[in-house]
Design brief:
Largest sheet: 8 strands, mixed
Structural class: alpha/beta
Bound molecules: iron/sulfur cluster
Strand content: 15-25%
Number of strands: 8
Distance between the termini: 44 Å
Oligomer: single chain
Number of domains: 1
């Protein structure tokens, strides 16, 4: 079995607890309008690794992980290559390395979800229509994913990118709060929308759809975060 890897970041500190090796898997079924990694979309790109080759790359950094850190599988959508991810997660578990999956929740690969210590779940929108407009996909799959995490009491970090005029109202936050009720949420992070990916869209000859969308202010982000408490 081989998996396609877009890139590997060593000593990452944002995508999960502690110091982590973040593996960005190649391929994504969504087309988020604000995606800052459109170069991960093509499922046929990337560099091929066997699970063991990737595990050996991760294991080198084990001394830095200490008790909290470990491996985060991100992307793209890592669960597009769910069988490969499950195998890497199993190898890490056997080695005592903690793991997380950073996902949109669009693909429910139960084996991989069960093997990961943490799921970082990016809930892009709570409204089916707005979700479709933002990602090009149907929301039901991400609801199923969240339901499975609730049922299995999986530890979750919930994330949402806040876009001015798209998901930045009190009602949006109330809908998000109600959606994640009953889940084993360890942390909720609202991230301000930014345009850092625009250059990549240009380089790939893609038309960036949110050129006129502003980043939310710090004050707005604080207000919205307070509504989730
Ligand atoms: S799920 Fe992530 S990688 Fe895929 S399109 Fe959306 S932001 Fe980009």
């Amino acid at each position: 079995m081989r998996g396609r890897v877009h890139s590997i970041e060593t000593l990452g500190a944002l995508d999960g607890p502690g110091i982590r090796t973040v593996v960005f898997m190649q391929g994504c079924p969504l087309r988020c309008a604000y995606c800052h990694n459109p170069d991960t979309w093509n499922a046929k790109g990337g560099v091929l690794y066997t699970p063991n080759e990737l595990f050996e790359r991760v294991k080198r950094f084990k001394p830095y992980f200490k008790s909290e850190g470990g491996l985060t599988l991100s992307g793209g959508e890592p669960l597009l290559q769910g069988d490969f991810c499950a195998e890497v997660l199993r190898l890490c578990r056997n080695e005592g390395i903690k793991t997380a999956i950073d996902t949109s929740g669009y693909i429910l690969h139960k084996e991989a979800v069960d093997l990961a210590d943490l799921i970082i779940l990016d809930i892009k929108h709570t409204s089916p229509e707005r979700y479709k407009a933002l990602t090009g996909a149907d929301i039901e799959k991400s609801f199923e994913f969240l339901d499975y995490c609730k049922k299995t009491h999986k530890p979750l970090w919930i994330r949402q990118v806040i876009l001015t005029g798209i998901n930045d109202t009190k009602e949006d936050m109330e809908a998000l709060k109600s959606l994640i009720k009953g889940a084993n949420v360890k942390k909720t992070e609202l991230l301000p929308y930014h345009k850092m990916g625009v250059e990549k869209w240009d380089r790939l000859g893609l038309n960036y759809p949110l050129k006129d969308t502003e980043s939310p202010t710090e004050q707005k982000m604080e207000e919205l975060s307070r509504l989730l408490l």
